[in-house]
């Protein structure tokens, strides 16, 4: 009864789904941000958070599972266990979240709930069993039969809101009996009481059975599977009954705070209103009224006008406004008790900060934040938009811990890193819609380096005659490659060595010669990249008593080193990444083939104990890794994951070196 009608996310009818209020969500037809709401069902108050399903927005699922006491894993009746189901399953197991499963879309062609339940067991290794049997599938889907209560439910009315109880159809009684025995069998694996009755061939009564399911769900050892069609509103009311019957209320889910005064020892959270306050800020949202902070109250009460302490930074703030969220609508409330999910205005804090009502040193544990896998270079189209651009990036990184920003030292580009191409694309799009900042997107430049292949002597004279004092400096010496051992010994990748004897090069100019060497090292002659693995030795030179100066020697030395390096078999080095790919074993051939096409060297391949997954380690040039996340997902039906980190720089092949030099010369001409 929270909303009056059901609408599609895409909003083809001009309305759109209530819980997906962002324009981008309606355009793409997917959830991007999690949204909170609450409802009253029978005599229970249920807080609900709707999270995205796409792997790029995984942090929204992560933060919701961190603060909720139970979850409903929604599966497609046709596709079954999809890539995101695997990711969400990992997250649920990480936070020990008790769950129900709901097999959706049974009105679609090709739906098969039995296949989906088998996949839950095989792929997610869950002890799952159906507590319902569908009455008809595809276009004949009329309702569900409750195996435990042994009742049939039919959904009538325009939107399935009229639930009619009935008798089990005669032709389905045997099937229901078979499924009931199967449920008891699965349950007896994880509950001693049912196991005892099962061995004695006694049939437990309804209350005993429900109590056993509740116990095993809360201990995360069993998953009851419900069925229906959400869009047609079939099977949703029994699912809400299941939430009340089987998922824990706040005091039943064990939660712990960490005592900072006692070496972060875990302290149980009581979930009682009369105890001192403990609340966790789990999501931040910028609105026109300022920062909106979503809070989960673990114990105690939040009251309007009270003072709360931020345990993480010690600040004390007064609560001006508490609201209960219904997607993007707000309802002002004066107080909220333990177990509730509410939002507050007027509080400046970070995601995962803990709040208390006194100077207590208890904090709630934070959440797992995955490392970004993909980067893009972004810059505003117009220079006068820089302030808005910075403000937007500040807001987005505050909201989303998986979005990282850094400025590249070499190229001065702003590099945006995130969970995938769609993730970054959505933020670039939001920047244009919410802040009016149009962005130019480019591939981040690969961080190449330059070095030399052999020793080369130099004798370089810099002469410049103008009116008055001119410039004169002559330097003599050589450049040579440094070995790995020598670099480790000196703790640097380049070295300047002064072997001058006498005063041909006056001692006051030695530091200028070293600076000139560093100028040449910072920008090599091939592609303007930094130079490494090179030693420069200065052993002689000449000066002029009037025309020589710091600037003359610095310029002369930079010219000498650059010129010598061009003749010393120069080479370009490219970054090689250590890449780890985890995939289901049936996709191994396609994935290995793709890594080889990207010039990858496979180091190791390991198969998991049960033979279902494969872990591949490879070394691949960074320049060949762009677009890999999308390719891996399409090759593995989205079930593959990869991580990469910098390994070392190695020489590029001659043809790539020529290409890079031509590209650099072209860019130089264009910029001039």
UniProtKB/TrEMBL annotation:
Occurrences of domain Tr-type G (ranges): 1-251
GO terms classed as biological process: mitochondrial translational elongation
Broad class of the protein's primary localization: plastid
Residues spanning the signal sequence: none
Keywords per UniProt: Elongation factor, GTP-binding, Mitochondrion, Nucleotide-binding, Protein biosynthesis
GO cellular component entries: chloroplast; mitochondrial matrix
SMART domains for the chain: EFG_C, EFG_IV
Example GO molecular function: GTPase activity
PROSITE patterns membership: G_TR_1, G_TR_2
Glycoprotein keyword on record: no
Compartments it resides in: Plastid, Chloroplast
Database matches in NCBIfam families: EF-G (TIGR00484), small_GTP (TIGR00231)
Family under the similarity heading: Belongs to the TRAFAC class translation factor GTPase superfamily. Classic translation factor GTPase family. EF-G/EF-2 subfamily.
Protein name per the record: Tr-type G domain-containing protein
Organism: Entomoneis paludosa
């Amino acid at each position: 009864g929270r909303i009056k009608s059901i609408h599609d996310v895409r909003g083809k009818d001009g309305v759109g789904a209530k819980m997906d209020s962002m324009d981008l969500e309606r355009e793409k037809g997917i959830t991007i941000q999690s949204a909170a709401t609450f409802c009253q069902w029978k005599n229970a108050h249920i807080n609900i958070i709707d999270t995205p399903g796409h792997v790029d927005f995984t942090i929204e699922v992560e933060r919701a599972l961190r603060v909720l006491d139970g979850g409903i894993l929604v599966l497609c009746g046709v596709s079954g266990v999809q890539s995101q189901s695997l990711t969400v399953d990992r997250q649920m197991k990480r936070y020990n979240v008790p769950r129900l499963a709901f097999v959706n879309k049974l009105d679609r062609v090709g739906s098969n709930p039995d296949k989906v339940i088998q996949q839950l067991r095989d792929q997610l290794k869950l002890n799952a069993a159906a507590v319902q049997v569908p009455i008809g599938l595809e276009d004949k889907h009329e309702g569900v039969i409750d195996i435990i209560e042994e009742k049939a439910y039919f959904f009538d009315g325009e939107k399935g809101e009229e639930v009619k109880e009935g008798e089990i159809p005669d032709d389905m009684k045997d099937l229901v009996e078979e499924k009931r025995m199967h449920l008891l069998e699965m349950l007896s694996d994880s509950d001693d009481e049912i196991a005892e009755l099962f061995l004695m061939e006694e049939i437990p009564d309804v209350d005993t059975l429900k109590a056993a399911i509740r116990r095993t769900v809360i201990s995360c050892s069993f998953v009851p599977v419900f069925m229906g069609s959400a869009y047609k509103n079939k099977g949703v009311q029994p699912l809400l009954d299941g939430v009340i019957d089987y998922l824990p209320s706040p005091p039943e889910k064990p939660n712990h705070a960490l005592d900072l005064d006692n070496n972060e020892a875990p302290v149980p959270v009581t979930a009682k209103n009369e105890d001192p306050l403990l609340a966790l800020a789990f999501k931040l949202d910028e609105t026109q009224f300022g920062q909106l902070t979503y809070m989960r109250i673990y114990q105690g009460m939040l009251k309007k006008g009270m003072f709360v302490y931020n345990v993480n930074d010690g600040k004390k703030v007064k609560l001006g406004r508490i609201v209960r969220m219904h997607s993007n609508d707000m309802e002002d409330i004066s107080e909220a008790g333990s177990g509730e999910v509410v939002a507050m205005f007027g509080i400046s804090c970070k995601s995962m900060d803990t709040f208390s009502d006194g100077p207590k040193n208890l904090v709630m544990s934070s959440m797992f934040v995955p490392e970004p896998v993909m980067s893009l270079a972004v810059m505003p189209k117009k220079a006068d938009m820089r302030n808005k651009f910075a403000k937007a990036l500040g807001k987005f990184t505050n909201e989303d811990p998986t979005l990282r920003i850094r400025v590249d030292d070499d190229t001065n580009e702003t590099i945006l890193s995130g969970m995938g191409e769609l993730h970054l694309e959505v933020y670039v799009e939001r920047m244009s819609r919410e802040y009016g900042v149009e962005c130019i997107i480019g591939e981040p430049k690969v961080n190449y380096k330059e070095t030399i292949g052999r020793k080369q002597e130099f004798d370089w004279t810099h002469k410049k005659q103008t009116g008055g004092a001119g410039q004169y400096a002559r330097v003599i010496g050589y450049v040579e490659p440094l070995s790995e051992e020598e670099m480790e010994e000196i703790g640097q990748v380049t070295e300047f060595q002064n072997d001058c004897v006498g005063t041909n090069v006056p001692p006051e100019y030695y530091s200028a010669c070293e600076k000139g060497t560093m100028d040449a090292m910072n920008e090599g002659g091939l592609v303007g990249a930094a130079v490494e693995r090179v030693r420069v030795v200065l052993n002689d030179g000449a000066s002029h008593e009037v025309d020589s100066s710091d600037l003359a020697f610095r310029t002369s030395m930079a010219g000498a080193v650059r010129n010598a390096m061009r003749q010393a078999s120069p080479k370009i080095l490219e970054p090689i990444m250590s890449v780890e790919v985890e995939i289901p074993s049936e996709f191994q051939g396609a994935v290995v083939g793709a890594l080889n096409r990207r010039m990858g060297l496979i180091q190791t391949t390991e198969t998991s104990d049960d033979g279902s997954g494969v872990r591949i380690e490879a070394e691949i040039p960074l320049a060949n890794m762009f677009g890999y996340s999308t390719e891996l997902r399409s090759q593995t039906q989205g079930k593959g994951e990869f991580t990469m980190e910098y390994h070392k720089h190695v020489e590029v092949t001659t043809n790539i070196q020529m290409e890079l030099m031509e590209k650099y010369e072209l860019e130089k001409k264009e910029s001039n």
